[in-house]
Please model this.
Amino acid sequence: MAADPTEDLKRLDATLRSVEEFVDLPARRVELEKLREQASVPDLWNDPDAAKDLTSRLSSVESEIDRVESLRRRLDDVTVLLDLAGSEDDADALAEATGEITALDKAIGELEVRTLMSGEYDAREALVVISAGAGGVDAADWARMLLEMYQRWAQRHGYGFEVYDTAWAEEAGIKSATFTVKAPYAFGTLRGEHGVHRLVRISPFDNQSRRQTSFAGVEVTPVVEASDDVEIDEKDLRVDIFRSSGPGGQGVNTTDSAVRLTHLPTGIVVTCQNERSQLQNKASAMAVLQAKLLERRRQEDEAKMTEIKGGRQDVNFGSAFRHYVLHPYQLVKDDRTHVETGNINAVLDGEIDPFIEAGVRWRNTPDE
Model:
């Protein structure tokens, strides 16, 4: 913060103007009216999936417009308050204005992160896969904890969250889970979460209460859109049908409706079992497979560009970049951005925005 509050106001005004230009409020308002018209049709819920996508997008656009407009109103109000404090030499009004400027600095800074998401797929929704790594039953439980952490984070922001598949572990936790975050820029927002997350704690599954280190991988890819032209030849697919299972391996329905797709040329395997019908599960599995193939293509293109540029490589997926320590002390620390906090319970409850925002900024720092 500057010594002169008016300098802070000028800086915040300039930052917010760049955000407003990036968001393109006039275009967003036009989109909002169209979405409201589409949501008002009587037969909207005849197609529940389409209706859910539409209402999710409507809520997201409304929230985005409200957030930007609210910050502009607050900035205008604090400008008036600061002028009043100066003209009347009002110490209380000055203290109130200074406190609001500090709060606005944080809120506008968070929103500014959105302007850094200029990658080809950053505006997309995100497909996320969490997989238990080394650590046995603790790793499976850690994977479950991460799934809940991201779900709570999405709920805090009002983002759509849909689980496509959950592979339950025998004793506790999950072997893997696949879900989508349905919000604009979800991929750009969550890209920095891609990698290995490490947990250190006293194992609740060890009768000697020993400390256990476990790992889980988080894979983030952009959701495929119609314009991506990711075609899959049926001849390249092996389709297996089986019965869905729940925690502990128990069956969750009485029909063989779960679907496993194997893409023979690449060896990519996708499973979906959370929908009610075999047809729905296959459609969801195809969407996940397309996203994985798109991400594979994106990584190949990125690798070529990195080789040409000689630029910095992304964090290796095989090494932990974020550490969650519950014992002998409490700390969450990100090795790349150096962001850390001792409030691990808040982090596991979905308060991960400082880590996410720092990750976005880290990805946009100049190559060293």
